[in-house]
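Interim report, section 4.2 (structural modelling).
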Amino acid sequence: MDLKSTRPRPSRALDPLLACTRWLALVSGVPVLAGCSGIQSALDPAGNDAYEIYLLTIVMTVGGTLIFVGVTALLLYAIFSRPEQRAWLGTRRTIVYGGLAFPIVTLTFLLPYGLTVMRDTDVPTADALQIEVIGEQFWWRVRYPAEQGQPEVTTANEVALPIGRRVTVTVTAADVIHSFWIPNLAGKIDMIPGRVNRFSFTVERPGVYRGVCAEFCGDQHALMAFDVLAMEDAEFSAWRAAQAAPAREPVTPFLERGRELFRSGGCGNCHAIRGTEANGQFGPDLTHVGSRRTIGAGQFPNNIGTLGGWIANTQHLKPGVRMPSYGMLTGEDLRAIAGYLESLK
Amino acid sequence: MLGGFLAWAVQFTVIYGVTSTVCARGWADTTVLGAGIVPFTVAGTTLVAAVAAAAFLVHALRKHRRLQSADASVTDVFLIQGAVLISAFSIAAILWHGLPALILPACS
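Predicted structure of the assembly:
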């Protein structure tokens, strides 16, 4: 899969409007915000839903800034000008038009605009790709239900999306309240234990994005992220087929030993590796853990070194996670287990 | 003087009460005269409340005009000007309050 960072390729359809709004942002005094872009930025929308939210943000920010500057200027004028110069500020006409009519007219335009954006950015369709995400402390359980002959897929801490197709994400939580947010693609949605929430969006620019938990959920809330891979439809179908397949068999004695250590150590009580006897449901599914970009819910690059370090010392890398540290393992055993997991592409 | 605020308070109570009850009980698909029960209730309550606030505004404006021609005290003039302001603002607030139910889907 050849996915690179997203920034240099804004959608052509969005280009002129994005440029205009960035200029508006610049002239209205929010250059810092206008400069933000990248894999985790609501100011770099990668789809029309995110763009609508972005435009609303710019309109509110620019409008609010202009009004704040205007009111502040009037306040300073009222304080420092001579009484005969500022007398017009106290007339009934100024108060009625400036203090009553102007806010009422402004809010009367902004309110339906904001409501319309809310309505238009979350429209489910019958053929939408269904994805289920469950928030856990402090990781993401991701499931693609079976559809149109495609088998069910379970993964963790990584969401793959086809571009140009409507996606409906159904979310809930297993333990405490979380919030699912991919800033480049859509707004936030709360994940509440015992309640199911849904929202829909479309990705229009391929690339790698980053989602985060947007509701404080415990000690490691700040380290609860996930990767989002937006890809062409054919590439997505290939990804899905690969994820649905059972785990690869070890191809070397070293990897074979890693699998045996994984089995004898009881790792399968918490983790599932389809195609083996490991069928635990408490922790992330590891059937294709080696194919993921990161481990620890978006915290570390995925390689043998970080996998070994994670197994040996989870409570140091991410204090409070449910997985205990396995510091008693020898270096050779750690390398074997990490090598086996890394081979599960 | 507080007639506009009272109309707004009644609208607030009715539409929040009905919407939360309908959504909690799963009655969102119920229709009244062809319209969904939530938009129907919100639109009806909003209309009644807005008409009531407008009536308070007209009454306050008439009284204000009468006071200007009479030898009224400063306190009376202030109170009736306050009534005009509150009634006018309440009309806007009532309309803003009813708008979401007409744009957004019920119980979403």
